Fold these 2 entries.
Entry 1:
Amino acid sequence: MGVGRSEGERAGSGWIFYRGPVLVALTYIAISVMYILVSDRLVSALVTDAAAVERIQSVKGVVFVTVTGLLIWYMVARLVRSLAMANARLAERERRVRALLDGAPVPVCVVRDGAFEYLNADAARLLGDAGLLEKTPLEARALPEFRAGVREMIARVERSDAGEWARDLRMNGRDGREFDAEIAACPFALDPHAVQVVILDVSEQKQMERAVRQAQKMEAVGRLAAGVAHEFNNSLTAIMGLASLVKVTTSPQAQYLAQIEEVAEQAAELTRSLLTMSRNGTSHKQRVALRGVLEDAARVIEAAMPEGVRFASSLEGLADSPVFADVGQLRQALLNLALNARDAMPKGGTLSLRAWTRATRDGREEAVVEVRDTGMGIPAEVREQLFTPFFTTKENGKGTGLGLAVTRGIVEDHGGRIEVESEVGKGSVFRVILSVERERVAT
C-alpha cells in the first residue's frame, strides 16, 4: 500500500530536499564570478610576462575545476542523503499506518479509483485474499442490484471531504458466501485521492431483527388466536352437546346429526391448534423415552402415506434417550411435518424419519429428529414465511396454514428448535432438536 501525501507536504518536502544544494549552488556562482573577475584583474595588474600569465591561468583552471567537482559531489551527496532520509520517514510512516489498519478490529480497506488498493486482515477474511482482490472494483463484491449504489457512494466521497454510510446491502464474501452488509466510507487521511472503507457483516444482527419481528408478530397473532379460539370453542361445545341430545330421539333429521358432530369436532381440532400455537392450551409434560414416541408416530405416519410415497425410519441412533415432553403434542408435531412432506411429493417419492443423539459444545446431550423428503423443495422466499401462521402455498380449502406454525410452537414450548434445509427440485429436511433429560423430574 502506498502512502499518499498532500500537495502541501510534497511542496514542503521538495524544498527540504533541494534547499541545501540550491544555496550552495548560488553561493558557488557568486564566488566563481568574483573569483574570475578579480583574479583576472590581479593577474593582469601584477604579472606582465606572457608565459607566467599562461601558467597562472592553467593553475586557475585546475583550481576552478577541482572546486566545481567538489561542490557538485557535495550537492549530489546531500540530495541523495536527503532523499534517503525522506524515503525512510515515508517507509516508517507507511509501516505505522499499515500496523494501525491491520490492528483495527473491523474490516478496513483502501479504495483508489473505485478499486481495492489495500485490505487489512479482517477485510481479507471477510471478502477474500487481498492479493487477488487488488485492483478489483469494490462494487464487484456487491450483489448486482446494489452495485450502482456502492459505485455512486464511493464517487461522492472522492469528490468531497464528507463521509457516507450505506445500509441494507448484500455482498459476496469469501468463497461466494452472501452476507448482509453496511459500508462506511470517508476520505483517506493520508491520501486525498483514496477512500477508506469499513465493511461490516451484519448478518447476525439482521437475523436477530427478523427473529424479533417474527416473535412480535407471533405474539400478536397468538393473542388474537387464543381469544377467538376460546369463544369459538364455547360455541362448539354447546353445538356438540345439543346435537348429542337430539340424536337420541327418533326424529327423521337425526341422521344428519352425526355429520354435524363430525364437522364440529373438526372445528374443535382447529381451535386446539390455535390454542397450541398461542401456548394457552393444556400441556402435560413428563420424562418419556423419545424412541418409543417416535416408533408410535412412525406407525401412524406410515399408515398416512399414499401409494407412491415410500416411508423409511431409522431410530437406532437414539438408544435410551429420555426427553421431557407432552407425548400427544410431540406426536402431533411430527405428524404435521410428515404430512407436510407428503404433500410436497404429489408424484411420489421417499419420506424418511431418522433420529440420533449428539453432544453439544457445552457438554450437554441433545436428540435430533430428522424428517426428510424428496419432494419439490422450498424456494428461499417461501422459507422465510414457513412458520408464519395462516401462510400456505396450498390451494384454497386444502390447508389452514397452521401446521408448521403449530409445530414450531410445540417444539419451542418443549425448549427445542427447528432447523430447515431445502433446495428446489431436491427436497427438504426438517430437524427437530430437543434436550435429552436423563435426570429431570416431571412437574
Note: The domain at 206-278 is CATH 1.10.287 (Helix Hairpins).
Entry 2:
Amino acid sequence: MPKKKNVIALGSKYSTLLVRVKDRLMGLERLIKQETVGTYWSVGQYISEHILENAAKPEYGKTVIERLAEDLNCSGSLLWRVVKFYQTYPKLAARPELEWTKYKLLLTVKDDQQRLQIENRALKNNWNSNELAQQITTLKTRERIHQISQNPPTLAFTRGQLNTYQVISVPEIPSKNAPLFVDCGFKILKPLPPLKGIRLKDQDYLHVNGTKINRVTSDDDQRFCYKAHLQRVVDGDTLIAIIDCGFNTFISQRLRLRHINTPEMSSAKGAKAKNFVEAQLKNASPLIIKTHKTYTTDKYDRYLVDVFYLKNETDAKIVAQKGKYLNQELLNAGLAHVV
C-alpha cells in the first residue's frame, strides 16, 4: 500500500499570508502590463518622430523599420504596430485596465469614434481580451453587412493636368539673383531652366510639352499629376511605382490609394483585393497618379493618391483623360470601404 503523506496543519495566519502574497504578485503583474504599454508607446514615439525628421527621403519609414527589426532581432510587424499605437494615441491616457493585448485589438478598429466607443464600453463592462475581440468582430461584421446592403459611395476626384508645375522661390537658399525652382512634387525641387521669351516669377504655373515650356493659368487641383509605372502591388490599397516627376527626374514611391481602405492581407478578402488590383493593372502601363497638396502622406509616410489606368493603352494623355479610377473600382467591387 502507498505510504500516506504526513499532513501538517497550517497555522492560523496562513489565510492572511495567502492574501498578502497573492496581492503582491497581482500588483507586480499589473505593473508589468502598465510598463509594457508605456514602453511600446514611447518606442512608437521615438520611431515616428525619427521618420518624420527624414520624411524627405523616399521609402525611409520602411527602410528604418526593416533595419531596426534586424538590429534588434525583433519583428518588423511589432515595430509598425507600436508606431501605429503612438499615432493613434498621441496622448496616452492613464488607463491601467487596458493592457497591451487589448490595445492591439483596438488598433484594428479604423474609425476613431467607433474605437473610442468600444474602448469606453470595454472599460465600463470590464471585458477581458476575448470579450473585447468578440465585440470588435461583431462590429466589423455589422459594417460589412451594411456596406453590402448599400450602393458603393462615389468618390470625388480631379484628373489633373500632366506636366503642369508651379514655380517657387526658396528663401533658405541665399542668392543675389533670387533663383527660382520648379516644384515637381514629392519634395523635389529642380532649378528653373533658362527660358527664351518667357519671364516667370514666384507662384507662376508652367506646362511642359516636349521641349517647350509655356506659362499657363492653373491651380493646385491641376498639378501633381504624373505618369507612373507599376513596380509592385503590396496589398489592395498600396502600390509601389516609379514616377516620372518631369525634368528628367524619376522616383520610386510607396503609394496609398486615397479615401479607401481594404482588409488586411491576413484575411481572405484582403488577398482578394490585392489579386483584383493586380488583375486590373496587368497590361496597363503607364498609370496616371494624382496626388493632392491637402493630403500629402499618411501616418506610414505613404503618398495618398488617385490612380487611373487603361488596359493596353500606352498614351499617357489618353489614360489621364479616359482612364478608369482604381480607387472607385475597388469600392464598386465591394473590396474596400471609404475612410
Note: The mean pLDDT is 87.
